[in-house]
Amino acid sequence: MRHFGHLAPEVRHRLFHREPGAFTADSPPHLLAPALGATLYSPATRPRLAEDILKQAGRGVVSMVICLEDSIDDAEVAEAEENLVGQFADLAERGVEPPLLFIRVRAAEQIPDLVRRLGTSIRLLSGFVLPKFTEERGVPFLEALVAAEAELPAGPEGPARRLFAMPVLESPELLHLESRAETLAGIARTVDKYRDRVLALRLGVTDFCSAYGLRRPPDMTAYDVQIVASVIADVVNVLGRADGTGFTVTGPVWEYFRVQERMFKPQLRRSPFLEGRADELRQALIEHDMDGLLREIELDRANGLLGKTCIHPSHVLPVHALSVVSHEEFSDAEDILRPERCGGGVLRSSYTNKMNEVKPHRAWAERTLRRAEVFGVAREDVGFVELLAAGLPA
After folding, report:
1. Which residues, including other chains, have CB under 8 Å from residue 89's CB and lie 6 or more apart?
2. Backbone phi, then psi, for 175, in 5-degree steps?
3. Secondary structure (H, E, C), 291-303
4. How far apart are the first and last CA of the chain?
5. Got the DSSP string for 174-188?
6. Which of 323, 355, 376 is the last residue before a domain boundary?
7. Which residues fall within 8 angstroms of residue 123, CB to CB, at 6 or more apart?
8. Are strands 249-250 and 201-203 parallel, antiparallel or unpaired?
């Protein structure tokens, strides 16, 4: 699979200076973590789940979470598990490579139970999403995952299936100031111990808001809610460092996908939307409250987050379009990482509009090239508007 792989080859050639690279569920974690992109959640109760998964894959989705937790009623869990197992079997029979698939469970004991019940269709599963993650609650989940994988039949090259964990950081202990530092330290100890299992850390901002009876409106981002912004900053501070100890931390969910009454002016400037269908596209984004989403995606990356939890298919393309590395970013990153620059120094950027300081900007450049590997590099005259427009139905 590859990002923008659903577009025709000639369209990709027109858009990309360097096209997104291919990857599989067996690719190394350092490649899979940034490749997650917009991770689409779906309730496990959906009666046509297998068809839905393939349909979304055909529209550019490369990672999905099948949810047995908050998205379904407590009384539906047994029925949802049964449906999930049946839908995985259906999917396996179709012989088509699905997106990276994860299951969000409620309790640790569900992990070995589901692994057994999935049988041979376990080969379609990339791992589990672990809710309300703290040191105390997280260790049983991770131990269950390791034990479940150990029970899988092994081939000549190791276990039949490698299972990753994606902890969700959303507990009140992490939000509350008096317990935050201790909770973060415990989470750091736990994910470091199981580093080879943890693909990415996900932020549960809806639960953070719930602890204070808050809900951000569609014309505000998570970063406008200061109590939430402070937690994001602390999570990145402890768990998202670029010194080799950090993890990929993904952006929070955007809740809105229908027209809402607007209090504030739209946040999308007209200047990037001046040609072809672009103004029409701008208006459609505004009408569906996507201008707030686009702003939040930009703020996610500025604050050290990569990828995003999504609950609606319409959010996937904006996340992916804004994840593509611009030609200017790519030029800067390559200049900074040239072997002859390893001693440091300062240089004027290729675009002659900024200073590139080799040592301080090195970690940024390395992260940018990892993103370029999976999302590609846009041509010099291509921006996110062209990438968005190319992915929309004609």
Report:
1. 119, 121
2. -80, -45
3. HHHHHHHHHHHHC
4. 23
5. HHSHHHHHHHHHHHH
6. 323
7. 92, 160, 161
8. parallel
Identify whether the C-beta of residue 217 lies closer than 8 Å to the C-beta of residue 263.
yes
Whether residues 185 and 317 fall in one domain: yes
Backbone angles phi, psi at 210, to 5 degrees: -60, -35
Token pair in block for residue 204: 């549960």
Query: What value does the mean pLDDT of the chain take?
Result: 90
Mean pLDDT across 238-263: 84
CA pair distance 37, 129, nearest whole angstrom: 15
Question: Of the candidates 384, 165, 168, 192, which has an alpha carbon nearest to the alpha carbon of residue 294?
Answer: 384
Query: 63-67 and 38-43 as β-strands: parallel, antiparallel, unpaired?
Result: parallel
76/44 Cα distance (integer angstroms): 9
- What is the value of pTM for the model shown? 0.91
Domain identity same for 341 and 361? yes
Q: What domain count does the chain have?
A: 2
pLDDT at 280: 58
Same domain, 8 and 80: no
Reported as a pLDDT band with limits 50, 70 and 90, residue 256 is confident
Cβ-Cβ contacts under 8 Å for 296 (sequence gap 6 or more):
221, 222, 223, 251, 252, 254
What are the CA-CA distances from residue 54 to residues 100, 105, 249 (Å)?
11, 22, 26
Per the listing, tokens 């990153």 go with 333
* Position 262 confidence tier, pLDDT thresholds 50, 70, 90: very low
Q: How does 198-213 read in b/e, with b if 16+ C-beta sit within 10 Å?
A: bbbbbbbbbbbbeeee
